[in-house]
C-alpha cells in the first residue's frame, strides 16, 4: 500500500509539472505570430492531448478513490464510467498525435512544403477522429455486452483491444517512422566525413536520436510488449512515473529549447524588431537546433 501511494505521489507531481510546462508552451506558440505555422499547430495539438490526458487521470483518481472504504473493483456509477471513458479516449488521442507528429515530419522530409500543408488537415482529422471512432465502438460494446464495475477492469476483456490494439499499432508505426528519420539523419551527414571511428559523428547522431524518442513515444515499444505477468509494481512505475513527465520533456525540447522560440522571446523582451530578417522565413525545420544536424527540409 505504501509503495502504490508513493507511485501516486510521483505521477501526480509528474503530471502537474507537465500540465504547467505544456500550458506555458501552448501560450508561447499561439501568442507569437511568427510561430504560427502547421508544424507548430501540430505541436500545440499534441501538447493539448498531454494536458487533457493528465486532467482525465486526475479526475478518474478523484472519482474512483473518493472514499477509502469503497472497493473500487466493484464500484459502479455513471460518473466513474464517464471518467474512465475520457481517460481512455485522451490516452488514445495522445498516442495518435504522437503518430501525427511522426507522419508530418516524414512528409516534410520527403516532400515539399506545399505537400506538407496539403496533408495537414487530414492529419488533424485523423488525430481526433480515429480515437473518437474506436472509443465510441468500445463504449457501445461495454454497455451492451460487458457493463460491469466501472469499466476500468480490462485484463481479460476482448473488447479492450478496441483501445489497446490501435495504440500498439500506432507505436509500431511510430517505431518504423523513427527508424526512417534516423536513416535520413544519417544520410544528411556529410558522406565525406562519415567515419564510424569518428566520435563526433556518433555524438551528433545520438543527440538527434535522444531528442526524437520523447516526441515519437518510441519508449512505449518497451511498455506495450512487456509480458502480461511482469510485476505490477514495475509496470506502474514505468508507465505512470516515467510517462507522467513525458509532457514536460516534450515541452522543453520542442518549445523552450527551440531556437525560433528563443529568438522570438528575445525579440519581444528586448524590443529589437527593426533590421531583423523574420526567423520563420529563413529557418529550415529540423529536429531542435541543439541536435547539431542540418537538414534541408521545408520551412515552417
TrEMBL record:
UniProt membrane topology term: Multi-pass membrane protein
GO cellular component: plasma membrane
Keywords assigned by UniProt, alphabetized: Membrane, Transmembrane, Transmembrane helix
Domain G-protein coupled receptors family 2 profile: 7-258
Pfam families found in the cross-reference section: 7tm_2
A molecular function GO annotation: growth factor binding
Phosphoprotein recorded as keyword: no
GO biological process: adenylate cyclase-activating G protein-coupled receptor signaling pathway; cell surface receptor signaling pathway; positive regulation of cell population proliferation
Compartments where located: Membrane
Transmembrane feature ranges: 12-32, 41-59, 95-113, 120-141, 161-186, 207-225, 237-257
PANTHER family for the chain: GROWTH HORMONE-RELEASING HORMONE RECEPTOR, PDF RECEPTOR-LIKE PROTEIN-RELATED
Protein name: GHRHR protein
Amino acid at each position: 500500500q505504501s509503495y502504490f501511494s508513493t507511485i501516486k505521489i510521483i505521477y501526480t507531481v509528474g503530471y502537474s509539472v507537465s500540465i504547467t510546462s505544456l500550458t506555458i508552451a501552448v501560450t508561447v506558440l499561439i501568442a507569437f505570430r511568427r510561430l504560427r505555422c502547421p508544424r507548430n499547430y501540430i505541436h500545440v495539438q499534441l501538447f493539448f492531448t498531454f494536458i487533457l490526458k493528465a486532467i482525465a487521470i486526475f479526475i478518474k483518481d478523484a472519482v474512483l478513490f473518493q472514499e477509502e472504504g469503497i472497493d473500487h473493483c466493484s464500484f459502479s456509477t455513471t460518473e466513474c464510467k464517464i471518467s474512465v471513458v475520457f481517460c481512455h479516449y485522451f490516452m488514445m488521442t495522445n498516442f495518435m498525435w504522437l503518430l501525427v507528429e511522426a507522419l508530418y515530419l516524414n512528409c516534410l522530409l520527403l516532400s515539399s512544403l506545399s505537400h506538407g500543408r496539403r496533408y495537414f488537415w487530414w492529419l488533424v482529422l485523423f488525430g481526433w477522429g480515429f480515437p473518437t471512432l474506436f472509443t465510441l465502438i468500445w463504449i457501445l460494446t461495454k454497455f451492451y455486452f460487458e457493463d460491469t464495475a466501472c469499466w476500468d477492469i480490462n485484463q481479460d476483456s476482448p473488447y479492450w483491444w478496441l483501445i489497446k490494439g490501435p495504440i500498439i499499432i500506432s507505436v509500431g508505426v511510430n517505431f518504423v517512422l523513427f527508424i526512417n528519420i534516423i536513416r535520413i539523419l544519417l544520410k544528411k551527414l556529410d558522406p565525406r566525413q562519415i567515419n564510424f571511428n569518428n566520435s563526433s559523428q556518433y555524438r551528433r547522431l545520438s543527440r538527434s536520436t535522444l531528442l526524437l524518442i520523447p516526441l515519437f513515444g518510441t519508449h512505449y515499444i518497451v511498455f506495450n510488449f512487456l509480458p502480461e505477468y511482469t510485476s505490477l509494481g514495475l509496470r506502474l512505475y514505468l508507465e505512470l512515473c516515467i510517462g507522467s513527465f513525458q509532457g514536460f520533456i516534450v515541452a522543453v525540447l520542442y518549445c523552450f529549447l527551440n531556437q525560433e522560440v528563443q529568438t522570438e522571446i528575445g525579440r519581444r523582451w528586448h524590443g529589437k524588431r527593426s533590421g531583423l530578417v523574420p526567423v520563420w522565413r529563413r529557418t529550415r525545420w529540423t529536429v531542435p537546433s541543439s541536435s547539431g544536424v542540418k537538414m534541408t527540409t521545408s520551412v515552417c
